[in-house]
Every structure is written in C-alpha cells, then in structure tokens.
Amino acid sequence: SMFDYPENLRHPTPWYVEKGMPYFSPAVLFDKAYTLAAGKSLTLRYRILIHPGRADRDMLKSEWKAFLKTTDIEVRMESAKKLLALGMAMVTYSGDYEVKFPDDMRALHKYGNLKKKDLEWLLENVVYLGKGRTDSTIRPNTVLAYDKTLLAKGKGTNVLFGDLRVAFRTPEQLKKLGIKPSRKTNVEVEVEVEKKGTTDVLPADSDAQVEGEPTVSKLLTALQKNEKYVHIREPIIQMVEEIGDKEPISFLVEQLQSENRRRS
Q1: Within this chain, do residues 166 and 115 fall inside the same structural domain, yes or no?
Q2: Which of 90, 123, 145, 151 could make an S-S bridge to 157, C-beta 3.0–4.6 Å?
Q3: What is the C-alpha to C-alpha distance for residues 105 and 83, in angstroms, rounded to an integer?
Q4: pLDDT in tens, 45-101
Q5: What is the DSSP track for 195-237?
Q6: Top-confidence residue, 23 or 86
Q7: 204 Cβ contact partners less than 8 Å away, ≥ 6 residues apart
Q8: Which domain holds residue 21?
Q9: 102 with 114, same domain?
Q10: Which of 129, 149, 153 is nearest to 141 (CA)?
Q11: By its UniProt entry, which InterPro entries does this protein fall under (predicted)?
Q12: Is the peptide bond between 12 and the residue preceding it cis, with omega within 30 degrees of 0?
C-alpha cells in the first residue's frame, strides 16, 4: 500500500501507473488500483510512504484513515481535483474569448465539464486570480488561483499555476508567491493603479499605510487582500527581491516608474 509522501512536490495526489509506463507517478485525475505481477518490478520516481506489513485489506484501510487524519491529505486531494477542474475550465473558456480568462469564476459554469457543485465549492473556498489575464501571456509559475480555506489552517495550501499544474505549497513557499493568510487591519488600504503600456505603475502619491507602517511589506499585504490588484503583484514581488521589503513605498514607486520609462 502506497501513501503519498507529504514532502512530494505535488502532494497530495493519488498514485497510478499509466499503460506502457512501468512506474508509479502522482496525478490528480487518475486514481486507479494497480496489481504488480509476481516477478515484476517498478521504478518509483518519487518519495513515498510504504507500509511494510502484511497486505491485510481491513488493516490497511484503518491505517489509511489514520494517515488522512494526521496529514489532512483527503481534504487536500479534493481541493486539488477541484482546482485542476478550474484550470481546465479556464482554458476551455479562453478558447471562445480570444484567449482571455473570465473576470469571475461564475462565467465558467458551462466550460470544461465543471459541475455546478464544484463551481459552488470554488466560489466559497478559492481565491481566483485570472481576472485581466490571457492564456497567451501567463507564465508557468503564474498563480491563477489558490485554496483560501486550506490557507487559513496555517499549514500551506494548494495552488493552481499557469501551466495548469496544482501543487501544495508550504507557508514559506507561499510567501515567495505573495500569498499570505488574510489579516484584518485597522486601516482600509486603497492603492490606485495607473496602467501604462505593459507595465503597471503606482502613482507617486499612493503611499499606503497599514497600521502606521508605510513599508513595501505592508503594501504587499494590501495587494494580497484585494484581488483587484492581482495583475501587478508579480512584478512588485520581483522588485522587492532586489530592494528588500523594509523600504518605504515611495521608494518602490520610484523604482517602478523608472522601469516603466526604461521600457517605453
């Protein structure tokens, strides 16, 4: 009996063997039983948990249930399947709308065989970041959506990326993607965005203050809370990696405007 190892790149996923490929591989869409014939061998491409005892069905079911409780894997697997369905629906939709993704997930109800109950689940549990994006301009690591309900538990969450893979990311990995659990603040932040060409620019007078600290890190938090500004998050994160997140927002604004002039 093989259980997905929590540190696998795409944990949680079931394991399967594709016809003609003699090894196990994790995938969300496939969840099949596989019998290994006597004398045959498999090359295992990923780290896994292997039950070393006798293959007693009832005992294995009990052990599997215990494993689910300790890892939350069942919830993660269900989340991953629905995020993958979201990605497929987005691509199908984009084929009818000049490779553009919808501004709202509700527009996907007729695409990619997305079931009504799955769409309802997505609307309740997922942060959708496809607004304003097109299939032709996103990158493989562009974040299209993530499970906010899993995120709130503090152990990480499933993320749908631009190449349509769904992967579980730890809090440390999510931070690098600009994804953090929502936090209520005493001041409501509004950052006006002026779009020029292909680069998004923050006006010079847009110093946003959250709890009295007008730093870049606070701006990132504000951007994360408001889906309206998702399309400028990635370039800002890249800039922050160079200048640090303790600089005042005005400094970041200057850097962004300078970059925009350079590209014009």
Answers
A1: yes
A2: 151
A3: 12
A4: 554 555 566 656 676 677 667 766 666 777 888 899 999 999 999 999 998 888 899
A5: EETTEEE--TT----BTTB-BHHHHHHHHHH-GGGGGGHHHHH
A6: 86
A7: 250, 253, 254, 257
A8: 2-71
A9: yes
A10: 129
A11: DUF6807
A12: yes
